[in-house]
């Protein structure tokens, strides 16, 4: 069994200190085997924000892996943004923006979906290059077959069940098809500051999405589940959704996801 905490969109620079302290306390009491952070550590990629994110990570008792989010490259310093977009991320968070993790139970491949530029007004949207899909596929195939496989990115792989038109990561269809070929059971992402879980269609054409309880969901190698985390610590909340993170248990080739919500004084399971 592996216990994983999936946190996202911490947004240092605009956090609630009580929630940050509460999250640190909960994670250090719970001691998951691994913490996965799916991007947006900062608001504006300022050094002071990165320093806070670095201090938060240094205070965690569990090992962690991470990907950057669109807020983690500077919106102000365009030369830096174009030439060395992930310099600060690499200095304060991690030198690798696409880490791979495996033990004898789970195999995790991370994809950096952040783009420094886009041919549209909104540069915050994410995209996966074809070469990134090919590399992720190679990395997934290199993992031993018996591992439960997880892919992590910042931008969502599936839209919310209540908004099918919502923007998802560019080339999600190609990426999901590749993940399916490799037997991925779970994708994890953030960015929308809303938590939800839904099965990826075509994994099981007869799957009834309404059977996914938004408080907890179960994925298997045969049935790929796309899981989104809310914002763990930011005051930038959307849709009246409180701060949230996901508790994931991987056991016997399946993952069970439970959403943990901040109620103002502590964390509790979503209804
Ligand atoms: Fe965010
Ligand atoms: Fe984001």
UniProtKB/TrEMBL annotation:
InterPro entries, per database record: Calcineurin-like_PHP, CNP_phosphodiesterase-III, Metallo-depent_PP-like
Domain of life: Bacteria
Span of the signal peptide: none
Domain Calcineurin-like phosphoesterase, first and last residues per copy: 3-194
Keyword check for Hydrolase: yes
A matching Pfam family: Metallophos
Keyword tags: Hydrolase, Iron, Metal-binding
PANTHER family reported for this sequence: CYCLIC NUCLEOTIDE PHOSPHODIESTERASE CBUA0032-RELATED, PHOSPHOHYDROLASE
Family designation: Belongs to the cyclic nucleotide phosphodiesterase class-III family.
Name of the protein in question: 3',5'-cyclic adenosine monophosphate phosphodiesterase CpdA
Taxonomic source organism: Methylobacterium iners
């Amino acid at each position: 069994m592996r216990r994983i905490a999936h946190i996202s969109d911490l947004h240092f620079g605009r956090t609630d200190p009580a929630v940050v302290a509460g999250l640190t306390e909960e994670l250090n009491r719970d001691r998951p085997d691994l913490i996965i952070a799916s991007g947006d550590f900062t608001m504006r990629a300022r050094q002071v924000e990165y320093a806070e994110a670095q201090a938060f990570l240094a205070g965690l008792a569990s090992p962690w892996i991470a990907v950057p989010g669109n807020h983690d490259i500077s919106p102000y310093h365009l030369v830096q943004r174009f030439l060395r977009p992930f310099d600060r991320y690499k200095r304060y968070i991690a030198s690798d923006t696409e880490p791979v993790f495996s033990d004898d139970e789970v195999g995790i491949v991370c994809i950096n979906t952040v783009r420094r530029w886009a041919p549209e007004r909104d540069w915050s949207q994410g995209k996966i290059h074809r070469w990134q899909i090919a590399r992720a596929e190679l990395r997934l195939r290199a993992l031993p077959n018996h591992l439960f496989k997880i892919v992590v990115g910042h931008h969502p792989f599936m839209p919310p069940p209540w908004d099918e038109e919502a923007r998802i990561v560019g080339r999600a269809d190609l990426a999901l098809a590749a993940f399916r070929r490799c037997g991925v059971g779970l994708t994890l992402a953030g960015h929308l500051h809303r938590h939800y879980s839904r099965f990826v269609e075509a994994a099981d054409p007869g799957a009834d999405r309404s059977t996914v309880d938004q408080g907890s969901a179960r994925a298997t190698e045969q049935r790929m589940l796309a899981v989104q985390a809310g914002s763990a610590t930011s005051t930038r909340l959307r849709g009246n959704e409180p701060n949230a993170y996901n508790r994931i248990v991987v056991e016997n080739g399946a993952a069970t996801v439970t959403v943990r919500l901040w109620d103002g004084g502590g964390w509790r399971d979503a209804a």
